[in-house]
Specification:
The protein is α/β, with parallel strands linked by helices and about 180 residues long. The protein has helices at about 30-45, 55-70, 95-100, 115-130, 145-150, 160-165, and strands at about 5-10, 50-55, 75, 135-140, 170-175. InterPro entries: His_Pase_superF_clade-1, His_PPase_superfam, PGM_Phosphatase.
């Protein structure tokens, strides 16, 4: 039995502070809150049977309005969190991310390689699809998580795709993937 997985990259959030770790409590900006509210109607119209999210505040806040419209609770799953790049926020992050995309096995000390993130993302969605077989699951997460999941499914998902993904972004998948 299949499951529709609706990947939702979070709306615009307050930028991370250079020199500090990425804060899981960073909220959406006012524009991000407005975008999440606008997106709620579209997401609720997909008739979700479950709404799950990364525990990071910005991801939960993006899918929460749709969950309310659908009469569902948001449950959080640690494995849906953002990529642990091993970098503190820095203005030149793009150079570092590009290097990781060029070599998905590269991991900074204490960080996660993009290949491991892809495996984590695929396994997390496999579990969700099994738990919610026949349903429609809204999955609130992050740009790199969504990009690496998509990269595990189809060619052509690369650093420019990830870098340029809008906030919010929605990708609908039928899981397990049909051949």
């Amino acid at each position: 039995m299949t499951c529709d997985i609706i990947l939702v990259r979070h709306a615009e959030s307050v930028p991370p502070s250079p020199g500090e770790p990425d804060d899981p409590e960073r909220p959406l900006t006012s524009a991000g809150v407005a975008a999440a509210e606008l997106l709620a109607r579209e997401l609720a119209a997909m008739n979700p049977t479950a709404v799950v999210s990364s525990p990071y505040r910005r991801a939960v806040a993006t899918v929460a309005p749709a969950a309310r419209r659908a009469g569902l609770e948001v449950t959080t799953h640690w494995e849906l969190r953002e990529w642990d790049s091993g970098l503190e926020p820095t203005p030149d992050y793009a150079v570092h991310y590009e290097r990781s995309w060029a070599d998905p096995d590269f991991a900074r000390p204490g960080g996660e390689s993009l290949r491991r993130l892809t495996a984590r993302a695929m396994a997390a969605v496999d579990r969700l699809a099994e738990q919610h077989a026949g349903g429609v699951v809204l999955v609130g997460s992050h740009g790199t998580f969504v990009s690496r999941l998509l990269a595990g499914l189809r060619p052509g998902i690369d650093w420019p795709f990830s870098r340029d993904m809008p906030m919010p972004a929605v990708h609908r998948l039928c899981w397990p993937r049909q051949s």
